[in-house]
Design a protein that fits this description.
about 110 residues, mainly alpha, 6 helices, globular, transcription, transcription termination, transcription regulation, nucleic acid binding, Mitochondrial transcription termination factor family protein
Length: about 110
């Protein structure tokens, strides 16, 4: 319950929370402090709390270690993306950062 109350205080509607509880139940079992860290990181990256992408952004951040996050940033930089491009992409479509190497096939 504390996680649900905290997310509501961040502006996520109860109907969204119910949807996400069924879709990502393990996310809600994390320690409240961890969820607060993901929210802070999301805020620091400029994700609008009123955006439909807000929960998806914090859920994406929760799905990987800081090390994995940095590896993904390095890859985007190597491909020629600027920091602004990377953050802009994350703000619009955070799920792009959920792609894992094994998801990419044998290309």
């Amino acid at each position: 319950m504390p996680n649900i109350e905290y997310l509501r205080s961040c502006g996520i509607s109860l109907s969204q929370i119910v949807f996400y509880v069924f879709r990502y139940p393990r996310f809600f079992l994390q320690k409240a402090e961890r969820i607060k860290q993901f929210v802070k990181r999301s805020d620091d990256m400029g994700i609008d709390r009123k955006s439909n992408m807000f929960f998806i952004a914090i859920r994406t951040l929760s799905s990987m270690s800081e090390e994995k996050w940095e590896q993904k940033f390095k890859l985007f930089r190597k491909l020629g993306f600027s920091e602004d491009d990377i953050l802009s992409t994350f703000r619009r479509t955070p799920r792009v950062y959920c792609i894992r190497r094994e998801d990419q096939g044998n290309h």
